[in-house]
Design goal:
The chain is mainly α. Helix content is 64%, strand content 3%. It has helices spanning 24-55, 70-78, 80-95, 108-135, 148-184, 186-200, 209-229, 233-249, 274-277, 287-313; strands at residues 139-143, 264-268. The chain has a two-stranded antiparallel ribbon with strand order 1-2.
Amino acid sequence: MRPIHTDLPEPAAGMLRAKRPTGVTMALVVLVLVIAVQSIPSVTQSVVTAVQATVNGEPFSLGPVGGSDRWSGVIGVLSFGLALLALWLWLAAKERRPFATLGFEGVASAGLRRAARGFGLGVAMIAICVLVPVALGQAQLSWTSPDATSWAFVLIMLLGFLLQGSTEEVLTRGYLTQAVARRWGLVAAVIVQTVFFTLLHGANPGIGLLPIVNLVVFAVFASMFSLAEGSLWGICALHGAWNWAQGNLFGVRVSGTELSDAVFGYSAQPGSIDLVTGGDFGLEGSLITTAVYLVGIAIAWRVFRKKRAASAAAPAPAAV
């Protein structure tokens, strides 16, 4: 049997505080079941819509779960709360550890400061990805003149995307990373969560080679960011802010999905280069995004290494 890895940085060390830890294989099973629970509202909505269309003799096309119309989008993002609830029940019933051990331990005020900083970074990062193609003449950004209803949905989706982004971070950079790191070590944990995160988005509309590469690079960046901060607060806010600003602020497709309401409209110019504008997948299929993620990885890795070096050099606490 492999030895248990106990010298793990936060938040990867959370599984060590479980009274009945979950192994790697079972952790993957739990995640699949949790995601299935999360999909229930959107799948139910699609089934009801299909039945109504059939009864009325109307054509029906089954699109992506959590489609582009207003309420489908809202249901799609808010349903991620069910995944968090299901995971919390597993932690309480089987592992017997607090939800906070997933990456939210410590003083709440410090966590909120990290979240605020992460939110700002998320908006700034996607803004760079939007404005560079516009500055190069590859895309244009226009004001959509949103009405009061549109503003309301934009704000609702802000809360929804914060929930959605946080859930994906809790499942991958939190729970899965902790389960794998305990048994196989930190490097293996980063690799496994990266593969899982990429597969999770592999069926999105407009997927291609560069979007897959960017999913991989983002997963590594998110791991490095959470390890550099020692928690999930910042990366949860960053992930949610990135998705919301991308779709509802700048009007860009979010991982291939077009949203119904946005403050601005982003569109590629005729004859533009998909590698710059992102093509059908949106800016997450752009080389500009790749570059932004890689810079983020380099900075986060440097911060993490300095933090580990300082921790290793610190004197051990005196025995009592």
